[in-house]
TrEMBL record:
<dbReference type="InterPro" id="IPR029066">
    <property type="entry name" value="PLP-binding_barrel"/>
</dbReference>
<feature type="domain" description="Orn/DAP/Arg decarboxylase 2 C-terminal">
    <location>
        <begin position="18"/>
        <end position="360"/>
    </location>
</feature>
<dbReference type="InterPro" id="IPR022657">
    <property type="entry name" value="De-COase2_CS"/>
</dbReference>
<dbReference type="InterPro" id="IPR022644">
    <property type="entry name" value="De-COase2_N"/>
</dbReference>
<dbReference type="InterPro" id="IPR009006">
    <property type="entry name" value="Ala_racemase/Decarboxylase_C"/>
</dbReference>
<keyword id="KW-0663">Pyridoxal phosphate</keyword>
<protein>
    <submittedName>
        <fullName>Type III PLP-dependent enzyme</fullName>
    </submittedName>
</protein>
<comment type="similarity">
    <text>Belongs to the Orn/Lys/Arg decarboxylase class-II family.</text>
</comment>
<feature type="domain" description="Orn/DAP/Arg decarboxylase 2 N-terminal">
    <location>
        <begin position="27"/>
        <end position="266"/>
    </location>
</feature>
<dbReference type="InterPro" id="IPR002433">
    <property type="entry name" value="Orn_de-COase"/>
</dbReference>
<dbReference type="InterPro" id="IPR022643">
    <property type="entry name" value="De-COase2_C"/>
</dbReference>
<dbReference type="Pfam" id="PF00278">
    <property type="entry name" value="Orn_DAP_Arg_deC"/>
</dbReference>
<dbReference type="InterPro" id="IPR000183">
    <property type="entry name" value="Orn/DAP/Arg_de-COase"/>
</dbReference>
<dbReference type="Pfam" id="PF02784">
    <property type="entry name" value="Orn_Arg_deC_N"/>
</dbReference>
Length: 429
């Protein structure tokens, strides 16, 4: 990565390891930004990868932030994003989160229900503040082509479009500034994205809601599996920009927002694992590695119907110029802990490195990191040819610290020293 050997990164930071390439972040953001209508602002959805340095890298490129928890809000602020460049979205926000959003004077709290509107009003009134609020709308329509559609059905997200036909009540400490619609994720069809945006603009115009800000969501996907192809930013923006132009002409002062998570960060990340064991079982070759489900649920296919392989790359020098079929598995005691099924690799040896590509989004934060007590992996950002540790791996001591032992349970063991073992010093490996 940027001229640094993976073996070097693995030796310095250990495995399993997430490595992010800031050049790829810049390319991914920059190529879209250069083509996208200048009035459509890009907000980075921290949910995809909430690392503070990754967020700061995107901030440095010009992205604003979309956050959905108190920690994400604080992360965005630490990464240098101004309050006015942050929107706070998400169902079931706590009073503490809303309070913090008011303190940071975020560009908008995106309200997900009429009940939440009342809470924001109460909290803002107590602070002698007027809260800027966008309404998240659950539209009456849906557009096909997303892997997870949001509109056109009962959802815990947003306020049903129907409700907008009647007055929502009066909230003296709330200034309604606009609307937010998010229609789905992993969309790989430019026409579907443009159609979403067209219908969101239409929706915004047909209701009696102020249009200081309109957030058209996003959901832009990246190709992971055989048969998928990446979005073409040229094709996409050729479809989108005229829609923005048209809306702009009618509403010259509206702040226009697009939220992007996966699209910006997924291609920049590689999950680097090391082979710990090789074996054959009933004629199949297994490479047992130190990484798996606990750090990368999406790659093992947890939550999906069929296991499909993320792109895998052999990162060591091949022992022979030959391809073999391998099962690449992890260290968890579950048969589903498979990073790659029937993967073509050179002869694999203990100590070899394998990379799961396109792993910059929904990696460790979206995985059951505490399973088997492995904890969070280290994360490294490669920036201008330099590798920076941007997240330390959890150690056993970190994981044990938050547990409480009921002392009476081990009273008899105290002399024996049985429970005294302390392996807490090094990372979990
Ligand atoms: C998850 C989410 C995003 C980010 O989605 P991606 O598919 O990663 O771009 C943006 N906005 C909202 C409201 C979300 O829930």
């Amino acid at each position: 990565m940027q001229g640094i050997a993976y073996a070097e990164l693995a030796a310095e930071f250990g495995t399993p390891l997430y490595v992010y390439d800031a050049d790829v972040l810049a390319r991914q953001y920059g190529s879209l930004r250069a083509l996208l209508h200048p009035d459509l602002e890009i907000f980075y959805s921290l949910k995809a990868n909430p690392n503070v340095s990754v967020t700061a890298a995107l901030r440095a490129l010009g992205a604003c932030a979309e956050v959905s928890s108190l920690t994400e809000l604080l992360t965005a602020r630490q990464a240098g994003v101004d309050g006015d460049d942050i929107v706070f979205v998400g169902p079931g926000k706590s009073r503490r989160e809303l309070q913090a959003a008011l303190e940071e004077n975020v560009h908008a709290i995106v309200c997900e229900s009429v009940g939440e509107l009342a809470v924001v009003d109460e909290l803002a009134r107590a602070r002698n503040q007027v809260a800027r609020v966008m309404l998240r709308v659950n539209p009456g329509f849906t557009v096909r082509g997303s892997k997870l559609t949001m509109g056109g059905r009962p959802r815990q997200f947003g306020i049903d479009e129907d409700l907008l036909r009647r007055p929502l009540g009066s909230y003296g400490a709330v200034r309604l500034t606009g609307m937010h619609v998010y229609l789905g994720t992993r969309i790989l069809d430019e026409d579907v994205i443009a159609e979403n945006v067209r219908r969101i603009f239409e929706l915004a115009e047909r209701h009696d809601v102020p249009l200081e800000s309109v957030d058209v969501g996003g959901g832009l996907g990246v190709a992971y599996f055989d048969g998928e192809r990446d979005l073409d930013p040229v094709v996409l923006t050729r479809l989108l920009n005229p829609l923005v132009d048209k809306f702009r002409a009618a509403h010259p002062d509206t702040r226009l927002i697009m939220e992007l998570g996966r699209y910006l960060v997924a291609p920049a990340g590689v999950y680097v694992v090391r082979v710990r064991d090789v074996k054959t079982s009933m004629g199949q070759r297994f490479a047992v590695t130190d990484g798996g489900t606990h750090h990368h649920m999406a790659a093992v296919g947890m939550g999906s119907f069929v296991k499909r392989n993320f792109p895998l790359r052999f990162l060591s020098a091949p022992a022979a110029d030959e391809s073999q079929i391998w099962q690449v598995t992890g260290p968890l005691c579950t048969p589903n802990d498979v990073l790659g099924k029937n993967v073509l690799l050179p002869p694999v040896q203990v100590g070899d490195l394998i990379g799961v590509l396109r792993s910059g989004a929904y990696g460790p934060t979206a995985s059951p990191g505490l399973f088997l007590g492995h904890g969070y992996p280290a994360e490294v950002l490669v920036l201008d040819g330099q590798a920076h540790l941007v997240r330390e791996a959890d150690r056993p001591a970190d994981l044990l610290r938050r547990q409480r032992l009921v002392r009476t349970l081990t009273a008899g063991l105290h002399q024996s020293g049985l429970h005294r073992r302390d392996d807490g010093g090094g990372p979990v490996r």
